[in-house]
Write a structure and sequence with these properties.
The complex is a heterodimer. By secondary structure, chain A is mainly α. Chain A has one domain: MetI-like fold (Orthogonal Bundle). Chain A is built from 26 helices and two strands. In chain B, helix 2 packs antiparallel against helix 11. Classes of the chains: A mainly alpha, B alpha/beta. Chains A and B meet through helix 5, helix 12, helix 13, helix 18 and helix 24 of A and strand 2, helix 3, helix 4, strand 7 and helix 8 of B.
């Protein structure tokens, strides 16, 4: 990238990205941080009610991140390297756990594996107490491994097969190649995966709330202060503690990967296939993925059964009444809002994340570390505070003329940037600078080099950003709870209401409709994108 | 001005004049009746919301834009965070604990409805910042088959009965740190022992031995009992009755002696866009008609003496209540929650 002074367009682009991030990430969040005021912070810190949740949060994040990243790695390895069958099926399964509207999926675990669970009690006659650390740890591992899987698969698929072939030709076994070539070269993706997964687990409230029992963590504390007792001030102080923790994680990651180079794509094109893995390994991968898929399908399958029966699990008579309810009145409108808001946000968010990643990763300008941090930070902000910040900042009389849906869309865009951004940064670190330099030496502007040379190679990262933004937007409740208005109600708000009305049948029917709609949208997107961003679609 | 607009303006003016003339003729100059649309933030459940707002529109001609969330705390926080540009005219439903702090922060409009004059003082805020219009009683739900098979079929007559070893690991209690209902349960114990916190905590500690889990939401606990995850749980009487109506043989309701209750409130948000219509809403909610509708739909009690209780539902005069000091319970909440956690060793 040439100097900013010689490329005014580049300078303007940078200015635009930075000011958008300031306006829609920093400014609203400052409103929340300032809410308690100095006295509020002092008295909250003195109460000391945050100490054990803080300890628990750190412990849970460490445990769940370790297992989720391990699982994600195994899954990614199986998808990219092995010759196992049913890959398209497993690709879908790898997204499913991301589609978990709060309350409903965690409650399904209770119904299946709880004290009177269909599997635990009905099949095995056991009455386990799943409430507590063990239960949340297990559920979070399943719920969050897809983040790690997507980021790692993107990095693995970009590694150059020639390096592995070369190692093989020099006599290294496949195990040795994995440890000395594959693993080291996927470090950017691995680092990004650990950081993002850890931050998302740190911020998760749905699973600890429903399954955590007396194992209180910071996000549940913040949420309960608001929902149970209307105490915004103390809750905002908890949110600040969470932000500081995330900042710590970020600094840890920066130290960890230092300034190393992970270039795996050099100037020359390669169409060499990956060295084959042994059939035994492929079968092992297949078996592992199948077991995981079975568990995930059991959970989501129970939602479908519940949506189609009168009163699950006590009355299993078939009925369509729940689905009829979901498609009548304002409910259909809520589903449509969800679809429209999420699709628009996903497109903008993915492109913005990619562009910002390019500016940060390739640029040489002061303050790029700060922007880098800023674009990861939203992951650490519990949705409820992201929304609260937006209301406080943008619910102004002079903005009343703007359609409220836009506020929700903008919140979706910026809250979900971190994954797409991390994927793009990791991707760029694996692409040799000489490639874009070649373009600029031949006279192209930096922007043109980005558009015509780098962008086509980053299809996978773009896809990661699109998919995660979309599914998170479809399933978030906490973010929209303070932003929606009657005409801009979304599906998760309706699900929240139905769960509290003890209308489990309609709540699960709504959830199934919501998830089904999301899968349909993703499939249509995949078909449309084939060819356009072939790199991403062809890879895991 | 185009001739078209001119004609419309003329017709409107003529109409208005006719209405004013008609009204002015009969009554001594009443203020123009409120109209238009109001924005209502509601913590009531869905069926109540739908029918109640339809009935209000039918009675007054005022339309409602309804924003509903099941947790009153979410609505309270929403109103607080929207204070620079209030989006609500009315906050309805939820215990008065959620309305009172808003009044103290100056976010509510004081209004003493003429329909509130017969309501007992304990059910309303003196200056009219909020007015109570329904009551909920804290009770006990049991899973019939597990109660009969494992606990000997005996429902608790007092809260102390729950300490019986027969209940060992067979109770779910709404979490006092996560839910309003769970906290009211703990506060009720404190008032039951005449504010002797040591005794109340001793009770909670003994009870802990019988508790299999603390539930993350009050209504969710009723679902757990219906699914036989435990034999019984303290919970709201009206929610228990609603769930029981779906499958009467499955669960049952009891009211132990010395229990607590809530006062469901309605309040007007200051700075709303249609104050006259908001006042009309408060007036209407306090009528006998609205009270009866709410009793039928939500199975709660009404603060009006002329509204009959829901068949089978307890009323405040029938049950034995503790002297529940709402202000004290609110002011000491954080301390009591912490005390409870320390007592149980989960801090």
């Amino acid at each position: 990238m040439r100097s900013l002074r010689r490329e005014p367009a580049l300078f303007l682009a940078l200015l635009a990205v930075a000011s958008l991030a300031l306006a829609f990430i920093v400014y609203p969040q400052i409103q929340v941080i300032l809410t308690p005021g100095p006295d509020g912070y002092v008295s909250f810190l003195q109460e000391g009610t945050w100490l054990s949740p803080l300890r628990n949060s750190i412990q849970l994040t460490a445990l769940s991140t370790t297992t989720a990243v391990l699982l994600g790695f195994v899954y990614a390895y199986a998808m990219v390297y092995s010759n196992m069958r049913w890959k398209p099926f497993f690709r879908l399964i790898g997204i499913l756990p991301l589609l978990s509207p709060p309350f409903v999926v965690a409650a399904a675990y209770t119904l299946l594996f709880g004290a009177r669970g269909i599997v635990s009690y009905g099949v095995f006659g056991q009455s386990p107490n799943i409430y507590g650390l063990g239960g949340v740890w297990g559920v979070q591992t399943i719920a969050f491994f897809p983040f790690a899987y997507q980021l790692i698969a993107d990095a693995l698929s970009r590694s150059d097969p020639r390096m592995e072939q070369a190692a093989r030709n020099l006599g290294a076994g496949s195990w040795r190649v994995f440890w000395t070539v594959t693993l080291p070269l996927s470090r950017p993706g691995l680092g990004a995966a650990i950081l993002t997964t850890a931050i998302y687990i740190l911020e998760d409230f749905g699973n600890p709330q429903l399954i955590g029992g007396q194992f209180y963590v910071l996000p549940t504390q913040a949420y309960n202060l608001i929902s149970g007792f209307g105490e915004y001030t103390s809750a905002a102080a908890v949110s600040t503690i969470l932000l500081l923790l995330a900042l710590g994680l970020y600094l840890g990651k920066v130290r960890l990967d230092g300034g190393r180079s992970f270039v795996t794509i050099s100037g020359r094109a390669s169409s060499m296939p990956r060295p084959p893995v042994s059939p035994g390994l492929s079968w092992a991968c297949f078996a592992a993925c199948l077991a995981l898929a079975g568990l995930i399908l059991l959970v989501y399958g129970s939602l479908v059964v519940s949506a189609l029966t009168l009163r699950f699990p006590n009355n299993l008579q078939f009925t369509l009444e729940h689905f009829q309810y979901v498609t009548t009145g304002t409910n259909g409108e809520a589903l449509r809002n969800t679809l429209v808001f999420s699709s628009v946000a996903a497109g903008f968010s993915a492109i913005f994340a990619l562009f910002a990643a390019w500016l940060v990763q390739r640029g040489q300008w002061p303050g790029k570390r700060a922007l880098d941090l800023l674009l990861i930070l939203p992951a650490a902000i519990p949705g409820i505070f992201f929304g609260l910040g937006y209301v406080t900042a943008f619910n102004q009389r002079w903005l009343d003329f703007v359609y409220r849906g836009w506020l929700i869309i903008i919140a979706f865009i910026f809250w979900n940037i971190p994954v797409g951004y991390q994927a793009a940064v990791a991707g760029l670190r694996q692409i040799d600078r000489s490639i874009d330099e070649a373009a600029t030496s031949l006279g192209a502007s930096s922007m043109r080099g980005f558009r015509e040379v780098l962008l086509p190679m980053l299809g996978g990262s773009l896809r990661v950003g699109l998919v995660t933004t979309f599914v998170r937007a479809v399933t978030t409740l906490s973010l929209v709870i303070f932003l929606f208005t009657p005409p801009t109600t979304v599906a998760t708000i309706r699900i929240y209401q139905l769960v509290n009305d003890l209308n489990w049948g309609a709540a699960t029917a709504f959830t199934v409709a919501d998830i089904g709609m999301a899968i349909l949208a993703l499939s249509i997107f995949a078909v449309l994108a084939r060819g356009r961003i072939a790199l991403g679609a062809a890879r895991a | 001005m185009t001739p078209e607009l001119d004609r419309r303006a003329f017709l409107k003016l003529a109409g208005a004049t006719a209405i004013v003339a008609a009204c002015g003729g009969s009554v001594a100059a009443p203020s123009a009746s409120p109209s238009g649309k109001i924005s209502v933030y509601s913590a009531l459940n869905e069926s109540t919301n739908n029918e109640l707002s339809a009935a209000f529109t039918k009675a007054t001609g005022i339309e409602i834009s309804l924003l509903s969330l099941p947790a009153a705390g979410d609505l309270q926080t929403r109103i607080t965070s929207e204070k620079s540009n209030p989006q609500a005219d009315i906050f309805v439903g939820g215990s008065s604990e959620f309305h009172d702090p808003l009044g103290k922060q100056g976010l509510l409009e004081a209004y003493q409805s003429p329909n509130a004059k017969d309501i007992a003082a304990q059910f309303k805020e003196a200056s009219g910042l909020w007015t109570g219009w329904y009551t909920g009683i804290f009770a006990f739900v049991s899973n019939t088959s597990r109660l009969n098979a494992e606990v000997g079929g005996k429902k608790p007559a007092t809260w102390d009965d729950l300490l019986d070893p027969a209940w060992s690991k067979r109770l779910i209690v709404p979490d006092p740190v996560k839910t309003g209902g769970g906290y009211i349960f703990v506060a009720t114990q404190i008032f039951r022992f005449n504010r002797d916190e040591a005794k109340a905590m001793d009770y909670m500690k003994k009870l802990h031995a019988n508790v299999v889990s603390y539930g993350p939401s009050s209504p969710g606990v009723i679902t757990s009992i219906a699914n036989a995850e435990a034999a019984g749980a303290p919970n709201w009487a009206h929610d228990i009755l609603t769930e029981k109506a779906k499958d009467p043989a499955r669960i049952d309701l009891t009211i132990p002696k010395d229990t607590g209750f809530e006062v469901g409130a309605v309040s007007i948000v200051k700075g709303g866009k249609n104050l006259p219509a908001a006042k009309a809403f408060v007036d209407w909610v306090l009528t006998k008609e609205a009270g009866e509708l709410n009793v039928r739909l939500s199975k709660r009690g009404s603060v009006r003496k002329d509204v009959a209780p829901f068949p089978g539902a307890p009323t405040l005069d029938q049950v034995s209540l503790v002297n529940y000091d709402r202000q004290w319970a609110t002011d000491n909440k954080t301390r009591i929650q912490k005390l409870w956690q320390t007592t149980l060793g989960i801090q």
